[in-house]
Amino acid sequence: MDTMQQPPRPARKANNISPKLVIWIIVAVVLVMLVLSSFFVVDQTEQSVVLRFGKYSRTVGPGLQTKIPLGIEASYNVPTQVVQTMTFGYRSSPSKGALYANPDYANESVMLTGDLNIIDVEWIVQYKIEDPVKWMFNVESRETTIRDISQSVMNKLVGDLPILSVMTSERTKIEVEAQAEMQKVFDTYGLGVRVVTVKLQNIVPPVGAVQDAFEDVNKAIQDMNRLINEGKQNYNKVIPSAKGEANKAIQVAQGYAAERVNQAEGDVARFNSVLDVYRQNKEITRTRLYIETMESIINPVEGGSVTLVDKNLSNFLPVQMLGGQK
Amino acid sequence: MRTNVNKKLITTLVIVGIFLVIFVLLGPFYILYEGQQSVLTRFGKIVNTETSAGLKFKMPLVDNVVIYPKKIISWDGAAQRIPTKENQFIWVDTTARWKIADPAKYYETVNTISNGLSRMNDVLDSSIRTIISENYLNESVRNTNKINNIKVEEQVQNLDNVEDAETLRNLTATQARQETISIGRDGLSQRMFEQAKQFTDAFGIELIDIIVRQIRYSDDLTESVYQRMIKERNQIAEAYRSYGRGQLAQWQGKTENEEKVILSEAYAKSETIKGIADAKAADIYAKSYNLDPEFFELWRTLESYRKTIPSLDKVLSTDMQYFNRLYGQDMGK
């Protein structure tokens, strides 16, 4: 440090830099570099693998970590907490959502089913790096490997099933089996990955005429239900009303019956009463009844004119006006 | 004095620097990372191989280090159009894993990674082709026979009638029994693997597996499969529609039938009721009137006159008994 305070400075500046100063500066720079390069930061989502002379030394967790500088130790951060997603048959981007257009993606998703039909299966695989050391050093092209195995497993599972089962009832089973099988293969490679989930997305018949034909079956089911409902509708329209009609007819008949019997009984009661009287005074009653009846007939309150004619014309009497106003 | 010191210092630094550079370039040490292995050659002759990571020694200037990956490497084969045993062309897309198991042998026989991949191409393509074309299509597509144990049914809903649902299910059933397979996809992969392995071992390569990534029909075959699928769906759609029409007709018939039954039963019942009432009334009348038929005749006739005659236009003869007294006392009988 003495050198730095030695006057006079400006005199030496042009051609005489103190060698000690140079050494100190170099030492200082080297020191700073050493210190800086012996710290490294590991994010909460990561673990870091530290190699010493290329050989695995240790795995460290999140925070500020130290290592031996000068390239003796090297650190590699691996995102072990992050669940990563791979899509098959399509790609999604945060801004545009799912992208389906590229035919290359379609090639991933076209499969043969067990009943030798063709189907389009889209799915995703989510995985997590479980063992950073294995992940780093056991397999060369890891993403490709995951893609290859996932595709192969999915193809195999779909290839074992009939097309309708793939589309409907076996979906969940495929997901579960695919996950287990992929995990098994990754473990044999020592990939250090845990398959979190396999989810099937769209499972559809090939786009175009085939899909239309599948759609048409759904439409046919709708048509069938519509026709059946039409039939039921008509039934419901006619039958309850017919039942009402039937009831009405029966009620009317019962009314008629009651009326008829009551009328008969009324008539008979009247007859019987008159008959009693008649038996006591036959002649008188008969005459009275006759006269009363004639009276009411010939002097009607309404309707009909009466013309009285004397057959012998010996005692003609014009009684034409007898009927009234006509 | 100071200039001398400076010169000496600079000279020393330069010399040290040059030595350092030479040391680094030719130095006796090299770092072998995890996932790597190396072959050490001296004047072209293999003297040592290293498979574990760490700081390794070599003779400066005379030793040459070739570093190979120790990791599993993937081989991505191009999709091949291969005929199956029944001569149907399919696209088979395969991939394989391998690694360098014997770096010395690999160095001798293959040397570089890209060479290795092209050797793999030769060997694997041929064994894949052989195995696929020796077997039927079903063996490549399916892995097990479980398809024959799966019951596929259309979702027949909204049917009141169990029997009808059953009929419809039979109509729309598409399940044909698939041929039984004896090897399956995994089995074929295994055979390809075994065949290819015989050749790859000679290169110091350890073949780990061969897997079929994808199997597709060739384009012309695809078109006819599409047609078949379409026809199959059409057939099912027609079954539904026809069943619907049948049901409609059935309901129409049922409606007409029930309507007629209901109305005619009501007619029968109402007429019966009326008849019974008529009979009862007749009985009542007869019992009563029989007491005196003569009076009944008089009574009923007069009653009837009351009802019928008033509304008629009447021309009456004075001969009627009623008019007996019309012309005076004498005119009587």
Mean of pLDDT of chain B = 82
Distance between the termini of chain B: 199 Å
Helix content, binned percent of chain B: 40-55%
Topology-level CATH name of the domain at 74-144 and 181-216 in chain B: Tetrahydropterin Synthase, Chain A
Most extensive chain contact? Answer: A-B, 122 and 125 residues
- How many strands in all of chain A? 12
Low-confidence stretches of chain A: 1-5, 10-14, 320-326
Rg from Cα of chain A: 57 Å
Order of helices and strands of chain B: HEEEEEEEEHHHHHEHHE
State the CATH superfamily name of the largest domain in chain A: Band 7 domain
In N-to-C order, the SSE pattern of chain A is HHHEEEEEEEEHEEHHHHEHHE
Number of helices of chain B: 8
How many domains of chain A, as an integer?
4
Q: Kindly name the structural category of chain A.
A: alpha+beta
> Which term fits the overall shape of chain B?
rod-shaped
Report helical residue fraction of chain A.
Answer: 40-55%
* Structural class assignment of chain B: alpha+beta
Oligomer: heterodimer
CATH superfamily of the domain at 74-144 and 181-216 in chain B: Band 7 domain
Using the 3D structure, state the CATH architecture of the largest domain in chain A.
Answer: 2-Layer Sandwich
What's the arrangement of secondary structure elements?
The complex is a heterodimer of chains A (326) and B (333).
Chain A: H1 2-5, H2 9-13, H3 19-37, E1 39-42, E2 47-52, E3 55-60, E4 63-66, E5 73-78, E6 84-88, E7 91-93, E8 97-99, H4 103-109, E9 110-112, E10 118-129, H5 132-137, H6 142-158, H7 163-167, H8 171-189, E11 193-204, H9 209-280, H10 282-298, E12 306-309
Antiparallel strand pairs in A: 1-4, 2-3, 2-5, 6-10, 7-8, 9-10, 10-11
Helix pairs in contact in A: 6-8, 9-10
Chain B: H1 2-26, E1 29-32, E2 36-42, E3 45-50, E4 54-57, E5 63-69, E6 73-76, E7 80-83, E8 89-100, H2 103-109, H3 113-134, H4 137-141, H5 162-172, H6 184-200, E9 205-217, H7 219-289, H8 293-308, E10 314-317
Antiparallel strand pairs in B: 1-4, 2-3, 2-5, 6-8, 7-8, 8-9
